[in-house]
Amino acid sequence: MPQSSFIMFDEEYKEIISVVEKLLREANARCVYLVDKDGQLITSSGETRDIDSTSLASLTAGNIAATGGLAKLIGEKEFTILFHEGERDNIHISVIGQRVILVVIFDKRSSLGLVRLRVKKASEELAKSIQKLIEKMEAGAEKENLLKEITDDDIDRLFS
């Protein structure tokens, strides 16, 4: 299936939010964002008030795209984990299931080792939820295609 924007279903969305909030707590992070590769914010949790989430989402997707170009230059498919260290805050970015980007912003209250450990577990859980979501989207697309094949004449014959 070609990549497209996600259609969120309630069950998977609740699972995703639960995993993101658990990661926030267990990694002792400031905030966590889940973004699709098109730069659309899926969800966020934590101290997000002072961060422009729209910009963060699009810049993160751009960052992944740019480093994807670098990866190809050296013969890699993709870099799935990126880390940016700042004076006050750090950003851990990871690609999950080649479809979504998990962004964890943390400060001195946490450590890179703890974040990486917790992200690994959360990534596995998120990958399962994302896969279920994709399967539901594909099933819905198949139903939609079936409905597109029904013509006005078919409907008239059905009700005549």
Give your account of this protein's structure:
It is a single chain. By secondary structure, the chain is α+β, with helices and mostly antiparallel strands. The chain has one domain (10-159): Beta-Lactamase. Helices cover 52% and strands 19% of the residues. Strands 2-1-5-4-3 form a five-stranded antiparallel β-sheet, sandwiched between helices. The chain is elongated.
Mean pLDDT: 88
Strand content: 15-25%
> Pairing-aware structural class of the strands and helices?
alpha+beta
In DSSP terms (H or I, runs of 4 or more residues), the helix count works out at 4
The CATH class label is: Alpha Beta
CATH topology label: Beta-Lactamase
Q: Which geometry do the CA atoms define?
A: elongated
Distance between the termini: 38 Å
- Helicity, as a percent range: 40-55%
Give the domain tally.
1
Main sheet: strand order: 2-1-5-4-3
Number of strands: 5
The CATH level-2 architecture is identified as: 2-Layer Sandwich
- Largest sheet at a glance? 5 strands, antiparallel
CATH superfamily: Dynein light chain 2a, cytoplasmic
Query: What's the SSE pattern?
Result: HEEHEEEHH
Radius of gyration: 19 Å
